[in-house]
Amino acid sequence: MAKAVQKITLSASRDIPFNKLVLSQANVRRLKTGVSIEDLAEDIARRGLLQSLNVRPILDAEGAETGMFEIPAGGRRHRALERLVKQKRLSKTAPIPCIVRDPSVDASAEEDSLAENVQRVALHPLDQFRAFKTLRDQGAGEEEIAARFFVAPAVVKQRLRLAAVSEKLLDVYAEDGMTLEQLMAFTVTTDHARQEQVWEALQQSYDKEPYLIRRQLTESTVRGSDRRARFVGAEAYEAAGGVILRDLFEDDNGGWLEDVALLDRLATEKLAAEAQAIATEGWKWIEVALDFRYGHTSHLRQLDGVTLELTPAEQMTFDALTAEYAKLEGEYEGADELPDEVDARLGEIETALTALENRPVRYEPAEIARAGAFVSIDADGQLTVDRGFVRPEDELSMQTGGEGPMEGETHEAGGTIPAASDVQRTVITIGGCEPDDDDDGSDDAIRPLPERLVGELTAHRTLALRDAVANNPRVALTALLHKLCLDTFQHSAPGACLEASVRHVFFPVQAADLKDSPSAQAVTERHAAWKAELPKDDDTLWDWLVALDDTRRAALLAHCVSFGVNALYEKGDRYGGPGVSAHGVQYRIAQADRLARAVGLDRVEAGWRPAVDNYRGRVTKPRILDA
After folding, report:
1. How far apart are CA 142 and CA 136, in angstroms?
2. How far is CA 265 from the centre of its chain?
3. CA–CA gap between residue 413 and residue 288 (Å, rounded)
4. pTM for the structure as a whole
5. Torsion sign (Cα): 186, 188, 194, 197
6. Pick the CATH number of 12-118 from 2.60.40.420, 3.40.50.620, 3.40.50.2300, 3.90.1530.10
7. Which residues fall within 8 angstroms of residue 101, CB to CB, at 6 or more apart?
8. What are the pLDDT digits (tens) for 387-439?
9. Rounded distance, CA 405 to CA 402, Å?
10. Does 2.60.40 match the CATH number of domain 125-261?
11. Residue 112 and residue 101: Cα distance in Å, rounded?
12. Of the candidates 82, 83, 20, which has an alpha carbon nearest to the alpha carbon of residue 56?
């Protein structure tokens, strides 16, 4: 005989006046989390009570019902209703939907409260996204949706942004095939085919971190923090039809600019316009480029202009800003962190003081007529103009009485841009950086580094080594004496009274970040400081050197010697050609290693960091892992 299945009896539902309800001490929720009581009250006022309260009748000493009910589950809803009653938006006797538990059941009030909170499952983010999307499709805006559910508009934007992800990947996420962080990384682009391609490629990799997904999706773009992007500006780029990929889930530093060709064109056009304005100063030539190589002015003579002094008004402004800066620093001396407004003000003062300290230089009109300028963008995305450089051929034309160029034109691949001047037409040449012709192979074996990459890396090392030698006079003196001894005892050197010399070494192969490296900046600043001190007349220079104390003389010697440091790798000539031999390159690198040990060179401390552009993106994965 089959056993009868006992039927489940659910607790009865009924409406109970609000003033007959009290909170139960058995409610397990003690901490305030989630939506605030205020927001919950507003939601109830807007759409009503969506979930009934769970109550139990309060019994007297004899076990009889008193007509009052305690609430073990639903305390937050009761507090929200209580707030509406206090605001006189709800009657104190308003009927409240309740589930009334039989006091004779085995489960305690504490168990009911715990079960209601534990058995609840939070809404899946994908379900929330689809619900928000339905509301938007029905005509609700993002701000309206956020107001309805008492969440920040950014939350709604983030959830709706998941619509940018391929449905195939959304299905993978719904089945717990990827994390929410990985899914969010795919929202930086709306190209579903590219998203799926990247996800498929990652299935063969042990590394599926969100940062790697973002990097692969944006590898052909330009960061918003790039100097070109900051120079052009996001508004101008988008106005020209450019698209910016944004990451709503993390700080993206301005996003990723998708159309690199458009960005370069806009930056070049803006630089060309600036060059037109500078041409009115009368320069013979102006070179325009998004970026110039480190040492691009090394073969040119720079004019000695006169630095203009601060006007009385500018001096007053300078003094006032300096005093304000010192006052703010004094007030917050020893503080672990500055208030945002103070930190911002200090930044404004620093910018203003720098602008006042960078004084314009006045040149003679005759010198301007044979000299030129370089127009480019600095590391911060600001216009940079280097004026007053004379080419060797222009030195010759002045010495022989030759005339300067007649009317010229701006040269660019595919067109010309006219530039006006009162005396002569300024020749504006628009160029750019040399392309990188490296081959990024994908072999699994550890292959030799590409020769161009080795050249770039050793250029960084050479510059860092120069800076280190210049700061170590003892090693610099040893290096110079070593060179002199080799020349004196192993080679004959006919000529003048003293034929010891340091040949400046330049960098035919260099990475884009070389000229902005800490070593380059240190060398440039030190060189400018010495140049400002040194007399230009030969006899005066000799007397100045004689009067120099030993410490400063050693420092100057170290600086001069450092320009001859050459730790560059180059492909050696195996057939006795005019270039350096393969053995010579090996000998050079060995000497550079010894010099680096002598000065204690540390590439990391010198400021070099391996990045995608300068190393990691140009070698195979096995070599990265081997490092």
Report:
1. 7
2. 22
3. 13
4. 0.47
5. negative
6. 3.90.1530.10
7. 11, 54, 55, 56, 107, 112
8. 999 988 787 544 444 444 444 344 443 334 444 444 567 888 887 443 344 44
9. 9
10. no
11. 9
12. 20
Question: Which two tokens mark 99?
Answer: 């589930």
Q: Where do the DSSP E strands lie in 304-456?
A: 306-307, 361-362, 372-377, 383-390, 410-412, 415-417, 427-430
Distance CA 419, CA 409 (A): 7
Q: What separation in angstroms does the CA of 97 have from each of 10, 310, 540?
A: 15, 79, 101
CA-CA distance, 488 to 587, in Å (whole number)?
Answer: 20
Provide CB contacts within 8 A for 519, sequence distance 6+. Answer: 460, 463, 464, 466, 467, 606, 607
Pull the structure tokens for residue 572.
Answer: 């050696």
DSSP state letter for 510: -
Q: Tell me, rounded to whole angstroms, the distance of Cα 129 from its chain centroid.
A: 30
Tens digit of each residue's pLDDT (9 = 90 or more) over 128-180 = 777 787 788 888 887 887 777 767 777 777 777 776 688 888 888 888 888 88
d(C-alpha 619, C-alpha 626), whole Å: 11
d(CA 513, CA 293): 9
Helix segments in 257-361, DSSP class H: 260-279, 312-331, 340-357
Percent of the chain scored above 70 by pLDDT? 72
Which pLDDT score, from 0 to 100, does residue 624 have? 60
> Residue ranges of the domains in the chain?
12-118, 125-261, 276-430, 451-626
For 253-272, the pLDDT digits (tens) are: 778 888 888 888 898 889 99
Q: What is the mean pLDDT of residues 337-347?
A: 87
